[in-house]
Design goal:
With 267 residues, the chain is an alpha+beta fold. It is built from 7 helices and 10 strands. The strands form 3 sheets. A 4-stranded antiparallel sheet has the order 1-6-7-5. Strands 2-3-4-8 form a 4-stranded antiparallel sheet. Strands 9-10 form a two-stranded antiparallel ribbon. Strand 9 and strand 10 (253-257) form a beta hairpin. Helix 1 runs parallel beside helix 7 (194-218) and helix 6 (171-181) crosses helix 7 (194-218). The chain binds a DNA duplex (14 and 14 nucleotides) through residues 1-3, 6, 32, 59, 74-78, 93, 110-115, 150-154, 158, 161, 163, 170-173, 232, 251-254.
Length: 267
DNA sequence: GGAGATGTTTCAAG
DNA sequence: GCTTGAAACATCTC
């Protein structure tokens, strides 16, 4: 269940293990989540290290250990982090478990779309090269506009999902942003007026900030006044207009929008 | 049994 | 060389 705020919530679960040493590492190194790295190094480097700090950025998380050891986690579509007791026995879809004195930090991912990054000395390149956060000062209307221009012919929905532009925005957040900005998800990204561009930036930031407050800080789902609870199945009603919502694939993903509120008038 | 799922990467075509 | 769309990845749930 991992978009920006869910990712941050998962990070906070493992942050229980800050300042504690890793006594033992369990991992299923042959699994796809370790693609692109030599998984045998992971237990060798991590055993005996203290988890010093962690950070999330978009859909990525980085856990930093003593000795400049870095463990990155991407939850993919079905990944999750949780803690268990120190005598926990790893189960079927647990791919890495870090045992500490008072808990076990567990990464579970049935569908294996998630990914583990690992490096020693400095953080992995993809972490160092990440795009500006939606909530950062660099995320200006000018910045958004220049990136949308490059994707001029793609539907807005597809561009909102581009992690190099909107880090952390996933399928439901993209729908929420477009619904609030009153923009049809099929609109070509290059055809927005300056005013519409400002709305994209404003609502992107609002949805990211509020999602973190509710989901990461308080652990509750967005309320009925959002598109969120109405978008998951056919038959949903727009909480602003009272009209039927539409669900159709756009940009390769299930997309939900409110026709009266988000017209296709190509300006 | 079949379709679809809150994601990314890769590949081929335009 | 860049953009774009579709397929592939693997498993579970409805």
């Amino acid at each position: 269940m991992p978009e920006l705020a869910e990712v941050e919530r998962n990070r906070r679960v493992w942050s229980d293990g800050h300042s504690s040493k890793v006594r033992e590492v369990f991992l299923r190194g042959e699994k796809r989540v370790f693609r692109g790295l030599d998984a045998r190094r992971v237990p060798i480097e991590l055993t005996g290290r203290v988890l010093r700090a962690s950070e999330s950025h978009g859909k990525q998380m980085m856990f930093c250990f003593g000795g400049q050891v870095f463990l990155g986690v991407h939850l993919g579509m079905t990944g999750s982090l949780r803690t268990e007791s120190p005598d926990y026995r790893p189960e079927r879809h647990d791919h890495i478990v870090l045992f500490q004195a008072k808990r076990a930090l567990v990464f579970n991912d049935p569908r294996l779309f998630g990914r583990i990054l690992f490096s020693v000395g400095e953080a992995p390149e993809s972490w160092r090269d990440r795009a500006p956060a939606v909530l950062s000062a660099e995320f200006t209307t000018r910045y958004v506009g220049s990136h949308l221009k490059r994707r001029a012919r793609s539907p807005l929905k597809a561009v909102l999902l581009d992690q190099a532009i909107f880090p952390g925005v996933g399928n439901w957040m993209a729908d929420e942003i477009l619904w609030r900005a009153e923009l049809h998800p099929s609109r070509p990204a290059g055809g927005l007026t300056p005013e519409e561009l400002r709305r994209i930036r404003k609502e992107s930031r609002w949805v990211c900030r509020e999602a973190i407050r509710r989901i990461a800080d308080r652990g509750v789902d967005p309320p009925k006044s959002w598109l969120f609870p109405h978008r998951w199945s056919d038959g949903g009603i727009c909480p602003r207009t009272g009209a039927a919502l539409v669900r159709e694939p756009i940009g390769g993903r299930t997309t939900c929008w409110s026709p009266g509120r988000q017209p296709i008038h190509f300006t």
